[in-house]
Amino acid sequence: MSVFTFLACALLLTACGGGSGGASSSGSAAEPVADSQLSAQAALGEKIFRDTSLSASGKLACASCHNPDNAHAQTNDLAVQLGGPNLDVPGFRAVPSLRYLNLTPNFFFAADGTPTGGFDRDGRAGSFAIQAARPLLAPHEMGNASKADVVANLKRASYAEQFRQIFGAGIFDDADAAFDRITFALQQYQKEDGDFHPYDSKYDQFLAGKLKLNDAELRGFALFNNPAKGNCAACHISSKGADGSSPLFTDFTYDNIGVPRNMRIAATANPAYFDLGLCGPDRLDLNTRTDLCGAFKVPTLRNVATRKVFFHNGRFTSLRDALGFYVRRDTNPEEWYPLAADGSVMKFNDLPPQYWSNVNVTEVPYNRKRGMTAALSADEIEDVIKFLGTLTDGYK
Known about the structure:
Blueprint: H1 3-12, H2 40-49, H3 62-65, E1 82-83, E2 89-90, E3 108-109, E4 115-116, H4 128-137, H5 147-155, H6 160-167, H7 175-192, H8 202-207, H9 215-225, E5 254-255, E6 296-297, H10 319-328, H11 378-388
Antiparallel strand pairs: 1-2, 3-4, 5-6
Helix pairs in contact: 1-9, 2-7, 4-7, 5-7, 9-11, 10-11
């Protein structure tokens, strides 16, 4: 299909292609900005989201790792963040952005058996509220020993009386009930505050007919959609929905692409440690589905150009390298995986051998063989990067 055809598709807004993080030691977050559009519960959730005193260290808030000024993602390039009472306990997965999650469906298996939806990188959480609970309690995140400890911290906060007014004078008498209200408030904040889903990128304005993309961005867009080239739109849908809704650049499905092991994660010092996504170790209900081992949720690509690390294990620290891995994983595996003593490439080294067959090797661009030409050239990767830059929020 020609570039002209793809650009025409873009202008017609039709599809042209195919089918919780750890904590950081960044300290207190910026002061909240009043939003008269938020409900009382959501406005309270914003205060909770930014409150470092709710952590065991007294220095960590939700906003420390999910910084509003960096698309609600991390601001450093650590593979995993540090948390716990002394901010010295390393996590296990890279911090995901919290942007554009409000339309995430509950986890389900589609008619063809495809796992879809759910919060967290393995889809184990069914709502914002459930997702919010773990960071408050995880030893490698905010590090509270119990729900009662979280509630006790909030009871001393400056907005404790506001919490009582909203949820009842006796709310602090029941730690479980109070903790549930904390996570509910966090949920409402993320659902209601437009900063989590502003749809104001250059691409959104392009779709609205308010501006044009430049030549490099249009070339990148065509490559992004082209099923014989980038084929990115197969999972990262770039067209408007049938109801005219703005694209989320994810289909909420899961994929196993054999991301290389990241030795910057402390847990990988143990050769027996593997993060298998859908089948564990965090998610337990699918641990017998060995066909799903190694699969992680397809993230939105909105704001991807602002990310500091890429993939569930933070293996790459540049968008260029992440895209290079996508298209050269199989044509030039020696660039991404370690070599064995005999000089052979140890592909898919972050999976036990019995799960190597789960890795996607059939869809473009993963259908290449060693020595073949990559699906995208270096110049084409640069054009795709230019297009992905148009997905950054706040374009003016």
